Amino acid sequence: MKAVNKIRILIASPGDVVDERIAVKRVIDELSTVLINDVAVELDAVMYETHAVSGVGSDVQEVINRYVDDHDIFLGIMWARLGSPSQRAESGTVEEYERSLARYRNDQNAMKIMFFLKEAALPYDIDLEQVAKVRAFKEKLGRDGVYAPSFHTVEELVLMIRNQLTAVVKQVIEERAASGGDAEESRDNHTTDTRSMFKSETVDLDDLGYIDLQVRAGGAIAKVTEISSEITHIQEEFGVSVDDAKSVFNRLSGLSTSAKKAVLDRAYDKLSQRMIEFTGELTKNAELHWKYSSDAIADWSRALLLKIYHNVVDRKEIEHEISSVTTTLQSLSALEQNIDEFISTLQAVLAGTARLRPGGRQFVDANARFLTQIRALIVAYQGYHDLLKRVRDGELG
Predict the structure, then answer these.
(1) Residue 255 belongs to domain with CATH number
(2) Is 368 a member of any domain?
């Protein structure tokens, strides 16, 4: 078994982003599974929950530091809480960041810093003092020269991490190889130089799977195209149902007031029921759209990573991919505008009568969730687009 190059990634955050911590660990574990099989790189998600051991110190954070200080990449997440203070910093998260930043400033090859800031509606019971501290810390990040992109949902963060962490891991490995650093000893005690991972004479490139990944990604995009057509069809069906309701209204002349009300109530109830049905159809298709879209970008990113590591990147192919991703981004932006306008139209229809609101509100919420997914995908595809440009320009690969 070849030597394993281990990279430790510290996930640092206050307690209000637990879901995000779990999701980031899952991404790190997934990426590690690919890397350890293909290029003998293992990623270890370092968290106080899994790495710290009970003990005594001047405070709790000092004990935690003993077990989490040994890391190569600091990955911070923050939302509306800074966290509880330690004896040396405003919070445990801040202390971990400052210790990592000090190592970076002492040796830029010894530490990489990544930070992600959540931008979402604040909880109703939020501590305003904590919010103020977070705001001040964000300003400090800027003064420290840290680029800290923002995200809105866990799904958006996952896609950002998946794209950006690949590039940072690649940088760590290249710097280790350049400095002559050794990979960690594998289970059979056989060691090799880390540079062997970049060019192996014993690996059959056809077994790496990057071609399979690209083919699977293409199939996923074909599914996305079909699902997008289904969603457009749902919008068209909604328009037909609204027109049917309007035609009923136009045929009310000559009826008594009570008869008009009875006819309209039936028409509105029918339209409300149709919107409930549309909600189910849209929710199902939106979930599939998200699955296949995120699967596609994950496969493309993994394929690109494998090609970079094994030095089989084709610059002409990269140019073609950049063009394709640009087209995809344009399609997603058009879809974003379409859904946004459709929500406005839907809200205008609901403003006419409260009778439509039971089903209408569900339909609005389903469209709003889909709009959030589309915006997260735009961020992810833009990240992949930027990654491709870095490869094209020789910054990676």
Answers:
(1) 1.20.1050
(2) yes
Angstrom distance (rounded) from CA 301 to CA 210 = 10
Q: Domain span at residue 312?
A: 210-392
131-162 burial: b if 16+ Cβ within 10 Å, else e:
eebbeebeeebeeeebebeebebbbbbbbbbb
Distance of alpha carbon 395 from alpha carbon 103, whole angstroms: 24
Residue 55: CATH number of its domain = 3.40.50
Residues 173, 214 within the same domain: no
Q: Can you tell me the distance from the alpha carbon of 187 to that of 162, in angstroms, rounded to the nearest whole number?
A: 28
Angle 218-224-229 from CA coordinates, rounded to 5°: 135
Per-residue exposure over 72-81, b if at least 16 CB sit within 10 Å of its own CB, e if not: bbbbbbbbbb
pLDDT in tens, 373-397: 888 788 778 878 888 888 888 776 5
Q: Are residues 143 and 267 in the same domain?
A: no
Where does a domain end: 198, 220, 251?
Answer: 198
In this structure, the answer to whether residues 133 and 230 fall within a common structural domain is no
Number of CB atoms found within 10 A of residue 381's CB: 23
One-letter amino acid identity for 200?
S
170 and 228 assigned to the same domain: no
- For 109, the enclosing helix (H) or strand (E) is none
Q: Is residue 204, in this structure, part of any structural domain at all?
A: no
pLDDT in tens, 219-277: 888 888 888 888 889 888 888 888 887 787 777 767 778 887 888 888 888 888 888 88
- Report the helix count and the strand count for the chain, using DSSP H and E: 10, 5
Strand partners, 373: none
144 to 101, 113, 244: CA distances (angstroms): 9, 11, 61
pLDDT digits over 64-77, tens only?
Answer: 888 888 899 999 99
